[in-house]
Amino acid sequence: MDNLPFLPIEEEIATIVKTYLQHKLMPYNTSGDALHLAIASYHKCDILLSWNCKNLANANKFNHIRYVNNLLSLYVPILTTPLELLGEPHD
């Protein structure tokens, strides 16, 4: 993980987070989730890994996330858990 780049939090990201919260994409009490999604979307990350299956890696929320990101002309990363990305080990 030492080779992973640090993604700066640009000023625009705060506006994205506010928009996510206004559109009820994430609950206010988990605004860290909105921040993670905003950073990944702003920086056009291919994948956002999360164990948070309630607010991020949730197929039922993906259409809402895609809708809001499209309104903002933002990239939509793949939202998945580490287990889904790695797959099941084979015997």
Overall radius of gyration: 14 Å
Poorly predicted runs are: none
What is the number of domains? 1
Largest sheet strand order: 1-2
Task: Note the overall shape.
Answer: globular
What summary fits the major beta sheet?
2 strands, parallel
Mean pLDDT equals 88
Secondary-structure content class: mainly alpha
Helix and strand string, N-terminal first?
A: HHEHEH
Helix-strand blueprint:
Blueprint (H helix, E strand, L loop, with lengths): L10 H12 L8 H12 L4 E3 L9 H13 L6 E3 L1 H5 L5
Parallel strand pairs: 1-2
Helix pairs in contact: 1-2
Describe this structure in words.
Helix content is 46%, strand content 7%. The chain has one domain (11-82). It is globular. With 91 residues, the chain is mainly α. The protein is built from four helices and two strands.
Give a quick summary of the entry.
This is PIN domain-containing protein. The protein is mostly helical. The chain has one domain (11-82).
Overview features:
91 residues, mainly alpha, two-stranded parallel sheet, 4 helices, 2 strands, globular
